[in-house]
Amino acid sequence: MADQWLLLPQPQRLARWEGALALKAGRFVCVEGADTATALRVGAVVRDALAAVGPRWELTMARGSDPNWLGAVIQVDPAQVAQPEGYRLTIRPDGIRVVAHDAPGAFHAAMTLRQLARQSAGAGALPCLYVEDWPDFANRGVMFDISRDRVPTMETLYMLVDMLAEWKVNQFQLYMEHTFAYRDHRAVWEHASPLTAAEVMALDAYCHERFIELVPNQNSFGHMERWLNHPRYIDLAESPEGFPFRGGWYEGPFSLCPLEPGSLALLAGLYEELLPHFTSRQFNVGCDETYELGFGKSKTACEARGVGRVYLEFLHKIHALVQRHGRTMQFWGDIVQNHPELIPELPGDIIALEWGYEADHPFDVRVSGWRRRASRSTYVPALLRFSPSRGAPRTRSATCATPPKPVCAMAQSVI
Prior knowledge:
Layout: E1 13-22, E2 28-32, H1 36-51, E3 58-60, E4 70-76, E5 87-92, E6 95-100, H2 103-118, E7 125-133, E8 140-145, H3 154-166, E9 171-175, H4 186-189, H5 197-209, E10 213-215, H6 225-228, E11 242-245, E12 248-251, H7 261-274, E13 282-284, H8 299-305, H9 307-324, E14 328-332, H10 334-337, E15 351-356, H11 363-372, E16 376-384, E17 407-414
Parallel strand pairs: 2-3, 2-4, 4-6, 8-9, 9-10, 13-14, 14-15, 15-16
Antiparallel strand pairs: 1-7, 5-6, 5-7, 8-17, 11-12, 16-17
């Protein structure tokens, strides 16, 4: 039965047929209709996956005169598969056939073959079946928090990327507050085991090889306490001494003051150093949970113009910085969502991220507000949370002073 085979994500169509494909020695994996780099990427995945089941097959881009030597043929042909990133995978007793719309689709088919091969390791044969799949959402991303005293090793990050690639995820973000090794800001990150520029470039290339876009992420308004607790930056804080918070008092600074010229200058410098290490043309600037806006230095301005207006004005300035780098800006939409009358004033190319931790978060209701006002938005549900008392990936730092944020998944861009 088809349900005996675990494939993630579940494909659009899966049919189990009678019989099996016995993997014979001396066969070839042939990739057609793709450039050499794609043929190497896709073909190597298929070749190595099948080697766990039976004999190792060689990789080629030429059919040759005798088709009987072809154990697997992978074609990239959009005329045969209409959906972007889609593919059809057929396993029969005479061989494996894949036809894909594009290079990512061929890679997704290879990932499906890897999952099947893992479940048939050492068997010498694969089950005969048919798989047809394509993504429901064009953007399928995961954001992983590395700013709560848990900065993964490169080994762990590579492992995560490989796992996400098998799940056909095509965007990955590392949530950063203070965990990039900015040259001019050593005091902020020196005890945080940050990612270096070279590590980010290596991870970007690793993602690219797996058709995953590594989107840069740097919170830029709230959640800046790791910066503002240092004397050099305290003057940029909205409320240096703290602010009322949920019936109590939050001790110390948390958000940048949008009226301080130095706040924008700080961000300009951070973007100038961070962004060149990413090939992605998107950038998540955060800007969520600016709890104390209007309680500190901006109190007078907020009373005169409104908290939402002061927030929006600073968001526009951040957007201008992002535009200088030719990037599309993502930001968390929770604050603007509280002032829906301001949504039409957002820049036309901006992407609002609608996040929610609860299983019953009203995504459809809240996103409909963005849609009615012709703004782009993306669902961001939380998937899981690591607990200090439970197993977690290998990290560079063993301490955990504050609970980590959840891993988040991003899907379904809404225009």
